[in-house]
């Protein structure tokens, strides 16, 4: 392998990207717009469905031990009840915005917990309280979840950045290489001493450089507005995004290794990226979803990237705490690169 040839391709690809003003600008504008828009609006947005946690889970009936939870509360289409084994499990989910309200079914005083930072906690609380008033005007005991609150924007931000990284990696690598093959650029490169491994490596390194550059700029710009609370290591977060970017670029190379049609490549990229976006907890938690959905989401690299970054950023997790997610990203990245190099074709 020649590092001189690899460097030449790396520089050429970067020049191409920076000279495309529209693509360059959109890579920065899109995540800024999403983060700022949701950060301003989501705190006042009313969602139609609320997730109510109940503990302990050993009693299958969705009622307190004294049977005082009204039937109207249990049968409401706007409420989803999620059982937890104990209070600690429920409070952890409440702190991370995976549920909106936590109830203790064994309490005669109808104790409940809310997260004051949750955009849905207030409405879920009002629905719960109103369910008691028409009958006997019982008053429930309100408790605030203990510990430092995680703001919604701090939970939401890693998902937006990972999503932007996914789209930029898949389209910036996969779609571009297919376009080069279709317009004959790869045929001309085949006549040079450049090897397939060098070409693919240059494409991936160029894209990861742009991804990390974009990440830093958007992070710094958004932080000036929202002042993110990072409980863990900034360096570890940067490392996780770097691994995630490599992984997504490798996935894009697999798709580009044989693709000859831009239309087909676009369809495949959409087929892969949209399920990842919706099942990797970018926008909402999968808490309470069917078990097979939650299991299926574990095959996506985006799931492991977002989960690991949120653990570090919101919980102060260390390298050892996210080791399983890192291992998944590293192993799948190597697999993607090996597959891409093995099946790559210069020709249409």
Keywords for this entry:
D-Maltodextrin-Binding Protein, domain 2; 14 helices; alpha/beta; 348 residues; 2 domains
Major sheet attributes: 5 strands, mixed
Unreliable stretches covering 5 or more consecutive residues: 41-48, 60-68
Number of helices: 14
Total number of beta strands: 5
Structure described in brief:
This protein has 14 helices and 5 strands. The protein is of the alpha/beta class and 348 residues long. The protein folds into 2 domains: 232 residues, no CATH class; 99 residues, 3-Layer(aba) Sandwich (D-Maltodextrin-Binding Protein, domain 2).
Folded structure, characterized:
This protein has helices at 3-19, 21-41, 71-75, 87-95, 121-130, 133-136, 152-182, 185-190, 196-226, 234-256, 262-279, 291-296, 301-315, 323-343; strands at residues 50-55, 79-83, 101-104, 112-114, 142-144. It has 348 residues and is an alpha/beta fold. The chain has two domains: 3-41 and 151-343, no CATH class; 46-144, 3-Layer(aba) Sandwich (D-Maltodextrin-Binding Protein, domain 2), CATH 3.40.190. A five-stranded mixed β-sheet has the order 2-1-3-4-5. Strand 3 (101-104) and strand 4 form a beta hairpin. Helix 7 (152-182) packs parallel to helix 10 and helix 7 (152-182) packs antiparallel against helix 13 (301-315). It is elongated, with a radius of gyration of 24 Å. The relative contact order is 0.13.
